[in-house]
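[SOLVED] Need 3D model of a two-part complex

Original post:
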Amino acid sequence: METIVLRARSMCKIPRWVDLHGLIISRLVIGAGPSGLMAAYWMARCGINARIIDKRETKIFVGHADGLRPRTLELFDSMGFQHRVLHEASESTEVNLWGPGDQGKLVRQALLDMTQADHSPYHNTRLSQGRIERFILDSIHENSDLRVERSVVTETLEYEEKLGLDPEAYPITVKLRTLSPEELNTPNSDKQNFETELTHEDLLQDDWDDLGQRGSHKEKVETVKAKYLIGCDGAHSWTRKQLEIPTEGSNTDHIWGVIDVIAISNFRKSKTIPHDQLRLTSTLADIRRVSVVTGTTGTILVIPRERGITRFYVPVQTCEAGTSDRFDRSIITPKMIKSRVQEIIAPYTFEFEVCDWWTVYQIGQRIATQVTRGDRIFLAGDAVHTHSPKMGLGMNMSLQDGFNLGWKVALAAAGTIKPETLKTYELERHPLAKMLIEFDRHWVNLFLDVEPGEKDTKAESMAAMSAKFENFAHGWNVYYPASNIVSKSPEHGDAAIPQNFVPGERIHPFKLRNQADGCPQWTTRLLKSDGRFRILLLAGDVRDSIQKQRIETFTQALGSRSASGSPLLDRYTGIPGRFESPIDIFTIHCSPWKEVEFFDFPEVLRPLSMSTGYAYDKIWCDDACIFDRYCDGTAYEKWGVDRALGTLVVIRPDQYIGWMGNIEDVEEMTRYFDGVLVRKPPVSEIPTVI
Amino acid sequence: METIVLRARSMCKIPRWVDLHGLIISRLVIGAGPSGLMAAYWMARCGINARIIDKRETKIFVGHADGLRPRTLELFDSMGFQHRVLHEASESTEVNLWGPGDQGKLVRQALLDMTQADHSPYHNTRLSQGRIERFILDSIHENSDLRVERSVVTETLEYEEKLGLDPEAYPITVKLRTLSPEELNTPNSDKQNFETELTHEDLLQDDWDDLGQRGSHKEKVETVKAKYLIGCDGAHSWTRKQLEIPTEGSNTDHIWGVIDVIAISNFRKSKTIPHDQLRLTSTLADIRRVSVVTGTTGTILVIPRERGITRFYVPVQTCEAGTSDRFDRSIITPKMIKSRVQEIIAPYTFEFEVCDWWTVYQIGQRIATQVTRGDRIFLAGDAVHTHSPKMGLGMNMSLQDGFNLGWKVALAAAGTIKPETLKTYELERHPLAKMLIEFDRHWVNLFLDVEPGEKDTKAESMAAMSAKFENFAHGWNVYYPASNIVSKSPEHGDAAIPQNFVPGERIHPFKLRNQADGCPQWTTRLLKSDGRFRILLLAGDVRDSIQKQRIETFTQALGSRSASGSPLLDRYTGIPGRFESPIDIFTIHCSPWKEVEFFDFPEVLRPLSMSTGYAYDKIWCDDACIFDRYCDGTAYEKWGVDRALGTLVVIRPDQYIGWMGNIEDVEEMTRYFDGVLVRKPPVSEIPTVI
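Solution:
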């Protein structure tokens, strides 16, 4: 202990690259939109040698998707950048439904809460996709040397089916080409002008470097071999077409305009309403609240955004259903979209001088029939599902696709989990894509012209639809079915199973007190997305001597070799370069914080490292903190955990519940892990250096 | 309205530089520590052409100050980066006092709450000074082209007293020299090794560019002329010495070591305590809680830090008081400091392998007798006051010095406020520096060896001292006296003056709902530090027709020329390049949120700009939001504002209360502004271009 190393600790992990031979690249992500970047996050976090290519010259800066649902923000918290999102984003608490009243004048038909109190630390939020990409890119940068390669297109894709059976083989061959600035600058779409005309003054400072990438690429062609390939290349996915995976569904016959503007409107300017009628009318929407407005000639959706921007979704034209994938974009302009808004919200006014972004689209409700080829090539995000943007769900689904797929590919590539785990991607995410399209079909219909008699019921229909799909839309329920990573039928008897924990679902976030320093933290932040499975030991009230003994027995079982050959924490291959064990343990007890000590818990629950100290972040307490109204000591109660008995829960790397049991059920828990994790080879099998 | 400008809005303000002749520089800040950077923030924010020089080669990265008091975090919130601080920092809720018990063994003597619930959104927090500098530097960067010039020393300073009388003159001449890398690398202190040995791996990613500044400077000499100079050059201030300003006070006779380590200790490992005694002993401190530990051979202070670091303040030696400013540093090593800790906390253990930073110091309790020369040259931070670091107050006082001085110098330089306002810097901050030293004298004594008989009363003394100085220490009270920016005696009669608003003090932060979108926000964030004075119109319950009429009358008075020559909002010089008026108006009413409309308020309270839209951020509501437990509609009650009558308050650019009155008192309020702000010249006096 007399050797003092000054500053030996690394604040930022730089992965050590495995130098593969030549151009062989172990994994490949195509497309650096929301789903691609989420997958890339996991490669960075787990130290995987991957390449991420994108055909765009820069990241997105303005416009595009904006809706963020509570579950997505919970995931961002586990990734470490939720605070940046909330600092910039626009939040909403209510949604207003407007329609023609008795005299045909627009009136509020309903005011719906957009979310329920205390279901999540986060609410419905909007922030430009470009900013979300910024935060994920920064996180990738912090955790690795991975960088998105821009202006790169794919030219050929070959997949050798037989090689796919050998986990060590590289069955995928892709030809990549970096486009020259000349090729990039051929005008192909009016939309592109928004990006090419942007200057530093239009962007936040942390996006400036990305702007500088423009024109910096040199033409180059290369062939790479990969173990895995993830195609996150959007609605017209090149990867999907190469795999000849068809899509089901069709385009609708409605063309919509979207416009992000600084809106100048007296919509809901109630000056004209006599003061004594204020109580009747004053809760109506305005352009800083989410509003669905059905005028006499159509329905628009009003979405307040960050930086004072408001987005309008506006029906501009109908075309013959199913006749073509394309329509004549050139006739639709911001001026035309503006006129349509003016028509619909009349007699209120609508003007703008500043337009941040606009586009026009035809809703295609389509779903890819498959999402993988041999569990080596995967599709995610818009490459799998396209639908209307009006639910604010698209970016969330894509982010969550990438999040679900990313950890599985990263840990399979790392040799940490069994490759068959990759089958759960289709199992878990494809049904949600179907549910998304179903929801969209219902939802979009509510925006279409209705017969006069139906008008009164629109608000009711919307309210009913919102309620029906709420848990799905917010991401609070994902309905992940049984698999090797979701154990639905515990093998134990009448255990003290928490009433409100469901395998395959998230755990409801609460604020807990850290036992060592007393500070409250949301579970979404303390359960970091770092690639590890987590055992949550819900230890109950550890002041009780019987319970204390059970905890002691539990930790002995963890360390015991007798049950299953080797102790649980030393049984499985780690995440190379990151963690020796793919399993982390968190203890959450419910004794009063002041009556228990950090050191009361067995050392395996709070391990010591000479370079990082005791693991003070491992012991948590469900007790109230007078300094924090959200830390109220109700987690056990709301989770339905018995305070006397406690329980044992396994959380997957993406924070969904994988397994539940009694504190005694270490053998059953080990069977769960045996089904997912790769066991370490016996010591004799490890090749020794001669 | 038919001209649509695509993306005309700038997200980031780049100031337009006034090109002054040659080397004449309008303002100068020396020293880019906490107080210098805070002052520089205001230069950046108000578009002032300044230079910031620092003799260090890079910013600070590790060690140094760490304590952040609640008020400092409130200011950070108004500056826009509080979320970054809280994301990284370590917070505390309690402080533990330890001393020898009956058998001479260490026992807990007291457990004190470190702060009260609901007095601030923020608590006692620690984060390395280097990270705070990072956030302020980023904010300066976002708001301007100002950059800190490193490796620059000052060689001569001349001040021409007579020129100081002419506000337009440049009375200050300074010779600057940029040091070459060779000069910088001459070893002058063992402490410097920490900085020079740092690599990318030791730092967070956003500090990497700063590390790259090392060795990049070229020797250069220049002479600059300045209107103002702010000396934030530390305890041994060169500026102070040039001005021949003496300091009062002396060094104490105690030498302390400070060490930031990953501590491995079983301090408070209660395993040895029988379970049935747990309730008696288990609330004791450990090294993740702030603790004052008095062992048999001295008293140490234990401060948990970010990233698992713990800081220890350790008495290592005594020397003869007043005999010299210096002592032999070379004999004190991390190993020696460790031994002292081990002695004091015995029989508990203390070890470490990783040391992040350490230093040794002799407490000097000194205060400069003056803080300005001619209100043109100013001292701030450690240049004015030095004291022990044990209260976690030093960085706070320095930041708040710079914050107080910065807006005054910036707005005087901008021609927005009257130069005599600069006198209030000494008036407001010097008494606080004295109070700081007084507190420190009392506080430090509690850490010194005490006679055996006194031991039992130490905890009591500490508790009493904490309580006595709490409001001062947390920054909740600053006692700013009457001046041209603090009106203590309103000229009106028995007005509905809020019981809990005190001129010269902060307003207690609450969460309010934005009238337009319903989202809650802390007042600390919505009242931005952007250089403007703010009228808070506490409008009361505006559903009442009499009250509604009073608001109408108020806004008419704002726009009226009759009272004082020109309408209030058009009466004063703006902040050039930033704001046309130096006055901003916020309305906070207390009607139920759903029963009032944004557009119910007169347009002057929610002005329209074609490029940014209606000012939706100007109307706020003191009503509860079901989604936010902190937004509970109690601000009026806690502020002591009459819900029927409302009130009128002026908040200075630094968010201290400047003036209070009735909603009718627009003339009195105008007199307040006339005493601070520079009136616009009559139109005929504005020179016309020929």
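Edit: Chain A is about 25% helix and 25% strand.
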